[in-house]
Hints:
mainly alpha
Amino acid sequence: MGRAISAISGSAAGFLHRPxxxxxxxxxxxxxxxSRLMFHPYRPERHYxxxxxxxxxxxxxxxxx
Length: 65
């Protein structure tokens, strides 16, 4: 009976560290994505125009609403 218990506890011990490891991987992935989002210098949505600006409206004689 002692062997059966040690075999069961030995196999269960292999599964014990997996949640901790996956939690560590998840935390590392979260930190990497967060740091990329916060410190990534190029954001195309800040650089591309979305439409004609006020200088174009002045040139064409239109008033801005």
